[in-house]
Amino acid sequence: MPIATRLTQRLGVEHPILLAPMDLVADGRLAAAVSRAGGFGLIGGGYGDEAWLAREMDAAGVARVGVGFITWSLARQPRLLDLVLERRPPAIMLSFGEVGSHARKIKQAGALLICQVQTLAQARDATQNGADILVAQGAEAGGHGVSRGTMALVPAVVDVAKDIPVVAAGGIGDGRGLAAALMLGADGVLVGTRFYATQEAAGHADAKNRIVSASGDDTIRGILFDLARRNVWPAPYTGRVLRNAFSERWRGRETELLQHQQAEADRYAQARTSGDFDVAAVIAGEAVDMIGDIPPAQAVVERLVSQAASLLAGASNRYRLLDQS
Description:
By secondary structure, the protein is of the alpha/beta class.
């Protein structure tokens, strides 16, 4: 049963579900699968690899997909945005950096501007720069973010956004999260970790299996893995990943890790290449609690919508308001 919202109307999709543009994981194949299932797929532009991005956009074929960028990567490689806009995507998503210098170009090209925000100040800035859709990302999300939780951030951003559709992100792994987001005033959800553990996702098989077997208690936030990659983000951003042998060795010893950064960075790079996730990070959020298999992306979309529709339809039968008069 489709759930129609302002988001589905604005994006021209059947279901209010967006694929998070996860770096290297949300490739053309996964984005296309989500879009074909009735959601909206976003290829992860990440830190900027022009050859990879062009290849993955080709791989998406005729599917209606967008691209998400870590915004300050565009300042270093402005050609990336031009490359994507030449292909006339329905939407571009910007996250983390200043959006004003890119917003006009995106909108002049006829694409919708999706802005991911982690604070109310960022939400206000995005609205002032013409955002068509806001993504309110809570700290439960995998990867980089700030500190506010999804439950409180979403309605606060909804109040700031007024007529702009808001999408909830962070800790959403099944239809209960979609239903809850709609009750908070959002018009849909952006889902990352749940789509990481799908057949189409470009992630390593062992990384997907670790997501399936993990619980939210197995995730941590910090900068350990940024230090190991020699790619530390500016404050207040930290990243959520699954605990592993590397994190347990160095957690609380960040200063010491810096003293050994060269050797550890080389070891970490080798681990990423070989798929050694005792060292390399599996970027995943607290929604791992709700993930127990590795299905096709279409099945994830169908489950999210079916469960949410059932919960919303039966909500009035689950609770009884007592007349105190």
